[in-house]
Amino acid sequence: MKIRLLVLALFAIFLLWVSVNVVRAEGATPAPYAGLKNPFPWGDASALAAGKGIYQQSCGGCHGAKGDSLPAASFAAVDFSQRLQTNPDFYFWVLSEGRLSKGMPPYKSSLSEQQRWQTLTYLDSLSAKASPGGGNQPSPVPVAATGNIELSVTPAQAQAGQKLTVNAVLRDIQSKPISNATVQFFAKVDFFVSGVMEVGEATTNEQGVATLEYTPRETGTTGIIARYETTEATVPLTVAEANRDFYHTEVGIKLPTLGPELFIGPQTAFVLEMGRAPMSALRLPGGLLSWLWLMIGAVMLVWFTYFRVVYQVFRIPVRGDRTDTNTRVVPLSILVFVVVTGTILVLMIITGPNSNLNLSP
Amino acid sequence: MRARAAGDFRGRLESTILTPLTQSSRGYYALVLFLLAVVGWGFYAFLVQLRYGLRSTGMGDVVMWGMYLVNFVFFIGISHAGTLISAILRVTHAGWRTPVTRMAELITVVAISIGALMPIIDLGRPDRVWHIVIFGRFQSPLLWDIVSITSYLTGSLIYLYLPLIPDMALMRDRLAREASSLKYKIYSLLAVGWRNTPEQRHRLEKAIGIMAVTIIPIAISVHTVVSYVFSMTMRPGWDSTVFGIYFVIGAIFSGIASIIIVMAIFRKIYHLEEYITERHFRNLSYLLLTSLFLYLYLTFGEYLTVGYKMKVEEKHLLELLMLGKSAFWFWFFVLGGLVLPAILIMFRRGRTITRIVIASILINIAMWIKRFLVLVPSLQVPLMPFEFGAYTPTWVEWSITAAAFAAFILIFAIFAKIFPIISIWEVAEENELEVSPVVRETVERGLPVPERR
Predict the structure, then answer these.
(1) Do B146 and B136 meet the contact criterion of CB atoms below 8 Å apart?
(2) CA-CA distances (angstroms) from residue B392 to B57, B66, B333?
(3) Which residues, including other chains, have CB under 8 Å from residue B235's CB and lie 6 or more apart?
(4) Is residue A297 located within the same domain as residue A203?
(5) Is the Cβ of A290 closer than 8 Å to some Cβ of chain B?
(6) Over 50: is that where the pLDDT of A269 sits?
(7) Is the terminal CB of chain B with fewer CB neighbours within 10 Å at N or C?
(8) Residue B155: per-residue pLDDT
(9) Percent of residues in chain A assigned helix, strand, coil, to nearest 5
(10) Using one digit for the tens of pLDDT, what is the confidence trace for A47-71?
(11) How high is the ipTM of this complex?
(12) B149 touching A (Cβ < 8 Å)
């Protein structure tokens, strides 16, 4: 029984998460939800208490205890209370039917109508305005107090996979640059949920400039946000679709090799139809740090050891030991075999890359 | 008194080991003839395969590797016997190893030669094996295979030859009366003028010492690289990070089992009861048990991690292995190759040697099957929405497999007629060491004698 309840609760949390995220999306509330009103007065103590219980059980997992875990559906936002009280039917609809496209599940089967209104009543209390004495909610006022961020992205027109430079200039209210401050950078993403995702942080220099290199991987219109404490700045960014549908990661890892990478064969042999990924088989390690040296070194070491060992045998016959057979024939022939085979193996590894002459231009 | 006892021991040892080299029973010739016939039949099957191509095998475009590759992995696995027993025990100065080392090293050389032949037989055009030397690319695990197997084969040949030198000298000296015979000539060539001088001993011991250390990493590399041929692909069941060590442990496991079998056979035929005692079997069975549990652990871990994630193709593979067409063999491997041998080794009831030998035979059969299960079911699973592959070995493959095993025994039988199967000088030395003054002194003083291990 308990397990069933737990499973149900987990499922409910998921559904709520999905549905509340839908709230941000605009649109008229459809029937039969249109025009519904909260039966409880906003701020009703018993409804608040009941709603808090439901929220903690079903919603807090995704939305967080203060309702601010999902930026796209933040109940802690300053204007949330106002929006909720203006269009209670819209939020009641979202809570009941969910917004699966954004990850919010419907709750009409798991919560009664009354419970859903109680939940909304509680949500209202989470809004920044509803906790005047709390002081723990971020206030819009410090934006002016801290100063401002000037944000720029170069180039503004980018392609997926192209490296961008994001510059944030941080100034206080006297317009003096703030140095040594850590600026967080976020990208707007829309993947099940729309929200912001941290892409990195950078520390401002003496001119108050924090620079971040960022490589977008998704195409479309997005935005970059820089945040310092409570100050934020947003700059739009359009990532154009190149002559392909998706961003492709280049094949292989470029290791430092202390030398040029070797490619053999005609261009067509290592460019696939996507035009970007060289066949790893034809990508050869070059330079001083190539792992090929390790392989050759190991083989040479082994065969040199064989040579040393057989040389000991070669030296075994005592000088002046009179026999009618030349006792050095066997060790000598093993020595020759070791030298020849070892050389062939090493040559085989070294010349291998250049032996596919049919691929050369 | 002691000197005479030691002299007696040596005399007995020499006559026990060397008599079979000069006298052969009818049974021996019958065995050799039979083995020759099997090898000949296998050769005929190979000619048929050359004539009609790989169509005459059960392999196809889906299951493109079959019994030949199973034999390849199996024989390369057995070849680890020599390294482990000989090199590791030599490096750790385990005195009891001496009567076993020669056989172990011989298993290595013979098994690796036959194992290395298998991929060549597996080629539709064996004459093109040369292409891997001239066109081989070092990015390919196949080329790594060639490099490390060649190194291992050469290394184990040298390692087999080095401790043979004093024994060759012994043979040469015993044949001194017929100095003109071909046999004498061969032995004195191979004995490299060995006169047992201190300088010669120093050189030989140095050479053996270097080789013992060198051969261990090479042996490990060989089976690791063999496993890479599989695990560098994305196939279900092969796409695994533990394959290197899994194969190495499996190789050591089946290698020790093979030594025990070979030891038991020669002990019986050559009447070596005095030199190969129950102690050798018991010590080896401890090593066998250790590797068995390691292998069991790795097997468990491998299938658990695969089964927990249960990718679609891997679900097919596990279904095939545990419930489907291969289920009987899989559970035979688990119960007959791991559980039953473990019980046989652990519970000491009845005759020790018989128990351990039965366990070893079971292990070797099960390990051959296990290699089959690693190879074939993985290839049967379709990676695209397609039919499951099928593989049934044909008579050609069975014949060549039989010939491979026959050749393995045949080379052993011939070797045992030309060279002493036990390293006489090392065993004699070990015996002298055991009744050395140091030991006697400790006994007289009433101190505990270091246990023979």
Answers:
(1) yes
(2) 8, 9, 19
(3) B313, B378, B379, B381, B383
(4) no
(5) no
(6) yes
(7) N
(8) 93
(9) 40, 20, 40
(10) 888 888 888 877 877 787 777 777 7
(11) 0.84
(12) no
* Residue tagged 């030398």 (tokens): A259
Residue B136 contacts A where some CB pair is shorter than 8 Å: yes
Residue A35 lies in a domain: yes
What distance in Å separates the CA atoms of residue A262 and residue A253, rounded to the nearest whole number? Answer: 14
A149 vs B288 pLDDT, higher one: B288
Q: Does B146 touch chain A (CB under 8 A)?
A: yes
Tell me which DSSP letter residue B276 carries: S
For B139, which of A281, A324, A331 is closest by C-beta distance?
A281
Beta-strand pair A193-203/A164-171: unpaired
Query: Measured between CA atoms, how close is B190 to chain A, in angstroms?
Result: 6
Beta-sheet pairing, A157-159 with A231-240: parallel
From the CA of A343, how many Å to the nearest CA of chain B? 11
Q: Nearest C-alpha of chain B: how many angstroms from A60?
A: 30
What is the sign of the dihedral through the CA atoms of A59, A61, A67 and A72? Answer: negative
* Nearest-angstrom CA–CA distance, A256 and A81: 56
For chain A, how many residues are written? 361
- CATH number of the domain within which B390 lies: 1.20.1630.10
For residue A85, what is the domain's CATH number?
A: 1.10.760.10
Tens digits of per-residue pLDDT, B100-138? Answer: 888 888 999 999 999 999 999 999 888 888 888 887 777
What residue type is assigned to position B196 of the chain?
N
Domain limits for position A305: 248-361
Give alpha helix (H) positions in B180-277: 182-190, 198-231, 243-270
Return d(Cα A289, Cα A261) in angstroms, integer.
11
Could you tell me where the DSSP H helices lie in chain A? 2-22, 45-54, 60-63, 80-86, 88-97, 113-126, 142-146, 267-270, 291-314, 329-351
